[in-house]
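Intended use. Records like the one below are meant for learning the mapping from a protein sequence to its folded structure. Do not use them to infer anything beyond what is encoded.
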Amino acid sequence: MTRRRWVLVGAFAFLIVYLLVARSTSHRFWRIDEGSVPLPVLEPALPGTAASWDALQTALKEQPDDCRQARVREAVEESSDRDAWRPCAPSIDAVKAWLGTHGGARIPRVPVHVSADELPRVRGPWTIGMALLLRSRVAGPEGAGSDLADALELGVRLQHAGPALHATSVGANLEWRALKDLMGRLASSDLALLEAPFAQLQRTTSLPSGLPVALVGECRAFADLYGDLSAAADDLAVPAGMMVFATMGLWSPQKTQALHTANCHDWLGWIAHAPADRGPPPSLPELSTTSPLGLLDNGVGRILLDAGRFEVDRLIPLFDSLQVGRALVFGAIAIRRAEELGEIVESLPADPWDGAPLEWDEASRTLRSRGVDEDGQPLVVTLGPQRGLSSP
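Structure written out for the chain above:
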């Protein structure tokens, strides 16, 4: 048998195996146009440059080995021992100096094709923020207010540092922990000792959520990857006789990019609504069982779409909780200040969950939102025996 016949027999055998095995589980496809709407250009809400991010990394370079993320997390959650955070103190001071001298940080958007060693380091800021929270618990009242303000500022700056979803989620977690600590102090501490964190929150009241910018950055990173794959595919010299096998998957980077970008637009539109008005989260379009020509194959395409899937469904409850937590803080401040003056609070902040005012129950001294936190628990603050954000 000639070599040409062996090639044909091998190709035919591959086709049979492909049809019987690779495509036996599903003949469904996404109907999608290869043209896609460009992703919007969104700027970070806070000013800053990449150079200021480099300055923060320099400030953290001397961080001792003992100042590890796991150790500080354990100290924050299980201990108030000063020795647990003391090794981190020099880095805390360096971050404080950076916060006071730089306008903000633009964390570079992370290209998906670089190695992990090249990614911007966010573990350092997270650990330092946690150490700040720990110090706020063991320091005196005056120092506690200052450290909480620093932790809040670091959390906000990381959230608005640029189109980097990893840094944005770190900042959101840090601010949420600081808000919960502040709530615990707000119920019983002298308000004068908490003016620093109150002022820091006031400065960021008008800032939008940092999630849309980060989501756009994440979406664009994978859209660029699909574009690189498309360019690479165009550079391949595939013989005309082999095109039937190259197209059997009925997949193209352009189709994957278009479907991925369309899904990004759906998510951006979804998170722009108030939580009470959102409805079910976006999902991919229904799969079609019609002729697969011009459609996106459910095999190769799904693999790439899964690789580029972002975790908005996991992160959005945290960012919703931040907005509600800020409103609860300001509402609780208004109530405390009115009580000190012997006055009655005439109006409370709007609940970001649905736009209606927060609910104040005088009998139980509970300020309540109609929303839930990332664990699905109601968001409340009790100005009484039960302190801080908790479930009723």
